[in-house]
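Hi W.,

Here's what went into the run:
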Amino acid sequence: MDKGQDIHAMMREIGVRAKAAAGALAFATSEAKAAALEAAADAVWARRGEIIEANGRDLEFGREKGLSPAMIDRLMLDEDRIAGIVEGLRAVAGFPDPVGQVMAEWDRPSGLHIKRVRTPLGVIGVIYESRPNVTADAGALTLKAGNAVILRGGSESFHSSRAIHACLVEGLRAAGLPEDAIQLVPTRDRAAVSALLQMVDFVDVIVPRGGKGLVGLVQREARVPVFAHLEGIVHVYIDKAADPAKTLAVVMNAKTRRTGICGAAECLLVHRDALALGQQVIDALIAAGVEVRAGPGLKGSVAASDDDWGREYLDAVIAAKLVEDIDGAIEHIRRYSSHHTEAILTEDDGAAARFFERVDSAILMRNASTQFADGGEFGMGAEIGIATGKLHARGPVGAEQLTSFKYIVEGDGTVRP
Amino acid sequence: MDKGQDIHAMMREIGVRAKAAAGALAFATSEAKAAALEAAADAVWARRGEIIEANGRDLEFGREKGLSPAMIDRLMLDEDRIAGIVEGLRAVAGFPDPVGQVMAEWDRPSGLHIKRVRTPLGVIGVIYESRPNVTADAGALTLKAGNAVILRGGSESFHSSRAIHACLVEGLRAAGLPEDAIQLVPTRDRAAVSALLQMVDFVDVIVPRGGKGLVGLVQREARVPVFAHLEGIVHVYIDKAADPAKTLAVVMNAKTRRTGICGAAECLLVHRDALALGQQVIDALIAAGVEVRAGPGLKGSVAASDDDWGREYLDAVIAAKLVEDIDGAIEHIRRYSSHHTEAILTEDDGAAARFFERVDSAILMRNASTQFADGGEFGMGAEIGIATGKLHARGPVGAEQLTSFKYIVEGDGTVRP
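Here's what came out:
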């Protein structure tokens, strides 16, 4: 048997065990799931020395591999960051359990009483890159929703993820839940990712967490449904009825608070009648160190080229364009958006309503920073990512979006005429 | 250019037009959509002569092709059946419009007000077999939810479907909605089906309506998400706490009311302590002309073989098996079910709760006939089919399940710290 077949067989075995665990998790009590997460949090804190030691090996490997300082920073764990992981686990433990929630119920003239009830999805595969804390975050959120999870961490964080995973398993064991509820793929071999993406019989959904390279690969190769966004090409439109002070505050925040996140603004659209305000905003962005690539009629740092429309910089760069009116802005967004998040700045309710109705992105904002595009800020407690697809999960994906549902129908010897 | 490329180009053109229509439909008013359906109903009735004539050509083609009497009956339209189509269109016109419904709304400490609002899915592809009325039903339901639809009818109902489709387009025109909102693939060539299944850039969901052959083909070949069920392997479990009168009524109805529908019972499971009742039910089924294929300990018409577990007969045949206890029944169902519909007959609330919790099928019933597994009976007005997948739509797929959602976030110059 060659190595590829070995990995395939190993992944299949992991799938079989995940599916069996999911069967038992579907009726695990809320108390048991919360206890498992609390015990895991205790274990992470108690074993922080081991985790930091394992992380040291990853850092060494990363430096040898020549990772950038930014990537080394993402990979690094210290006592503060471990405290953050512990806090995250306890927060998820305290969330309401979505499983068993009655989403709707009604009576029928036939005498039937019908309930629509939340159930777990089953088995979730999570594929991520260098951040070792995703091991805990993703494991906790999927468990909360009653799912089994197969975690596949980045090769850079291999040892750190294993050490954190051991703590999650300790939590499951303490709560009497199946240890296979949270499995970590025990190899760095990339063939394991390909195998996971094909496991339609064992995996219900794949969630990739990482850069465009990873997400694109998963979207192209997966035969299993994927919850993800490839890019956050976020547009902010300054309407003619925009309030200047709000506009200045919101655009600056949307672009500069953090430039590397998916909710950061990447393109500014300015109504022709708001030219003066638009130019003032652009000047402020330039003064704050942002490179503004401006279309005709606007003075930026440099002139925009056609490549700048529909581009995700993830950096201190923004494109800017003058549009004829709100419909010009909507048309530009429909053409170039990645359906993640867009914002309108306006005091005109009619303009806001038109924007909300005609732009079909997962998140639409009015007079608010696009950097609020986040499950925590939405009040979902935690998110496993943001999805831009139209099916099932859209926007921030929290515990509730990791569930399915079924119908419970009760009669009294009721037959259909 | 060869014929395959021709069809491919034609289907692409249909996709482009559907997507453009979907963009406009997303903000069509409820009144316009209802008016289009009412006008379509008027047109179907006014043009019933033409429709019956077109149907005559299909019947002739079908007889030449040697279709079975059952299939000829499914294909046939007379004035009564056309009145049924008209009634169906008017019923859907009267449904509440799901688009724009606020599914949830809440405030955040940041000052943001967040709403989760229903939106159309986009473009739906519906692939069906010989029943020409599906043209009207599927066209109406997808339009109601603000979607554009690409209909691909069976080759047997080609002329009937075209005649009905012309009436739907007349309705769209009368209401000022884009005519491309409801398109019918204008060829019998099977290459059009393959093309439709691959159109990830233009089609959001495929709904196949028909037998296992069609659904299996669609599920294997589609690169677009599919809402469907392959089979309805429906189990009815007689618990030890079953009420005899209810049990007899429910099982007889679940099997014999109509044997060819997906909600018909296909396997009877009998608790060892309910043996006498189970045997009485089996005797009644046999007396009603049902062939009972019984496992050890039960007296049926014939002995069951291993092939009888997990089998969909769609006929006056049922398998029957004695189980040790409720967990034996649950285990059998988990192994053999198609996740469509299962029922328990019991007066014991604890047993019902255990069954509901541990069986993961789209619809679970207690003391009620599985033949209620239907969108109309659920109060959804109409259904485009029943789905057994776990993502997005599950159970009967009505107008609401043909929608997606987006988040509308309102602030007042709100920025993220």
